[in-house]
Write a sequence for this structure.
C-alpha cells in the first residue's frame, strides 16, 4: 500500500494565500455592514464602477491601500521570517486570518472598563 505524497505550498503561494486570509478578515466586517445598510433602489443604468467608486469614497479607499501594503508585509514575515509551511490553501488562508486578528489585538488601544 502506497502513501500519498504530500507537497508543501511554495513560499510565494503561501504568501499569496496568507495575504488572502488577512484581506478576508479585513473585508468581511465591512461587507457585512454594507449589506445590512443596503436598501433596494430603482435601477438606473447598470454599471459596476459607480457603486465601487461610491464605496471607495465612503469608506476611505486610500487607507485600504496602506492596509494592503501592511498586510503584504505581515504575510511575508509570517511565511519567510517565521519559516511557516502550509500543506493546503485552506491552512494558509486560515493562518492569515488568525494572524491579522492577533496583530489587531496586539496593537489595539486598551478599552476602559
Amino acid at each position: 500500500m502506497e502513501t500519498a505524497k504530500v507537497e508543501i505550498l511554495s513560499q510565494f503561494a503561501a504568501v499569496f494565500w496568507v495575504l488572502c486570509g488577512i484581506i478576508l478578515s479585513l473585508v468581511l466586517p465591512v461587507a457585512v455592514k454594507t449589506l445590512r445598510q443596503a436598501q433596494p433602489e430603482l435601477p438606473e443604468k447598470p454599471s459596476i464602477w459607480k457603486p465601487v467608486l461610491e464605496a471607495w469614497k465612503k469608506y476611505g479607499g486610500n487607507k485600504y491601500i496602506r492596509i494592503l501594503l501592511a498586510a503584504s508585509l505581515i504575510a511575508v514575515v509570517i511565511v519567510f521570517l517565521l519559516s511557516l509551511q502550509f500543506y493546503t490553501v485552506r491552512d494558509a488562508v486560515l493562518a492569515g486570518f488568525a494572524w491579522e486578528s492577533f496583530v489587531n489585538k496586539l496593537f489595539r488601544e486598551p478599552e476602559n472598563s
Remarks:
- The chain has a mean pLDDT of 79.
